[in-house]
Amino acid sequence: MTQSNHILGILGGMGPQASNTFYQRIIARTAAQRDQDHLRLLLWSDAAIPDRTAGILSGQEGPVYDALLRGIKLLEGAGCTLIAIPCNTSHYFVPRLQQETKVPILHMIRETAVAVQETGAQRVGVLATDGTIQTGLYQKALEAVGCVAVTPPPELQRTVMSLIYDDIKSGRPGDGAKFAALDRFLHQAGCGCAILGCTELSVYREQAQLPPYYIDAMEVLAQQAILGCGKTLAP
Amino acid sequence: MTQSNHILGILGGMGPQASNTFYQRIIARTAAQRDQDHLRLLLWSDAAIPDRTAGILSGQEGPVYDALLRGIKLLEGAGCTLIAIPCNTSHYFVPRLQQETKVPILHMIRETAVAVQETGAQRVGVLATDGTIQTGLYQKALEAVGCVAVTPPPELQRTVMSLIYDDIKSGRPGDGAKFAALDRFLHQAGCGCAILGCTELSVYREQAQLPPYYIDAMEVLAQQAILGCGKTLAP
Question: In this predicted complex, what is the ipTM?
Fold first, then answer.
């Protein structure tokens, strides 16, 4: 294996643990026998970015967008050739961000919808932040590939948010009882599979070793990033 | 907790797994309740940097130094206010690198020697790459704090290198039998403690849950980086 000229830019920090897990996935999924087989990457972990869901739902999108754009410009200026953003909610801003840079930005939501399509499932559960759900990111992407998005009712959506914010983002292990309630709902609602559409839930997936029923958007993004940088997936 | 203006630059990729573990330590050791409590950091994971030990021992230091200097300049140009290099062997180049930048570079070797001094140990084992051992990095730093460095005899030094290169850098779990031989030697040699002076061994420390007898240079660096960026250590 030879070193390619690609440099992966990772716009992260949303949250830091999810970014670290994403970087770990990149390492683990790359076919490599020595340091030099891995891809070169620059990770900007901007923990100061305001909360994405809070910004979108309050109409105060400006500070979030501005911080994301500064991050994109930093990665572009440093020579990155491909950008990955391991935060589903932030993808609300990706079409605008893409217009501001010539460096291709991988679209985690659309890539995940394609991965879901390949499973053949018709009804697809979506576990994500209020920001991701209310902006319809996954609903639109799934509709585009002929699937129906199923989102939790308000009470269970609060459970999703609690798992993300009270547990994972607070540095605690995810509460299995919370996830069990979501799992029951998804199966009762006839979902053929479900998307882990928040990277904090991707962190939880590793803790809880969730079955393949759960399609992990972070995993999809990691694989696309590796392939996009000219590397091979580990067997 | 308020967001400080510090940005930690991490010059990594030597190897990628060690850099990821270092980033994980930074997250885990920072007192934080939400994303925005974490520090901002920029991690340049330059997997293409030639092997440090091979470069130093063959007299071909130039390509290694040049790659490290480019990394330092990248971090400086992006606004980093403090730099950490989670690779012990690379510290052979740090005095020269520091002359090329106004951004302070934490010196993992010297900081670790200070941490060792606080244990009161007189004889201190050093487990590190051939490059780190043969350049005397830890021997000099330990002598400066009044301790005696104890390094493994050639056969056991080959065991250290095998644990680092054949196991951890190759993406495999560390072989416990190899480490057990090193552990026996250190105790028989009368060492009061031993330094894990290669960040691949810091990765192994987590796998094997090594006791506090082993002073982990990466852990020292992580704590100094957090404090140096104006953050508080988690209780």
Answer: 0.95
